[in-house]
Amino acid sequence: MKRTGILFFPAFDWSLGDSHPEREERLLYTQEQLFEEGVLDLPQIKQFSPRVATMKDVLRTQALFPSPGAHIESLDPHLISAGSSLLLGEAQVKGEIDNGFVMARPPGHHSGATVWGNRGFCSLNNEAILVNYLRARFGKKRIAIVDTDVHHGDGTQDIFYHDPNVLFISLHQDGRTLYPGSGFVNEKGGPNAWDQTLNIPLPPGTGDEGYHYILENWVLPRLQAFAPEIIINSAGQDNHFTDPLASMNLTARGYGRITELLQPDLAVLEGGYSIEGALPYVNLAILLALAGEDYHHVREPQKLKRTTLTLAALKPYIQDLQKQQQTVKQSFTIQNKPYFPKGNWISIPHSVYYDTEGFQETRHDYVRECSNCAGTVYIESRRYTETSILVRIPFEACPICEQAGYDLWDHLQKPNEGFANGMLQNQLHDKQYLWNRKEGLMEF
Question: Which Gene3D superfamilies match (predicted)?
Answer without folding.
Answer: Histone deacetylase domain
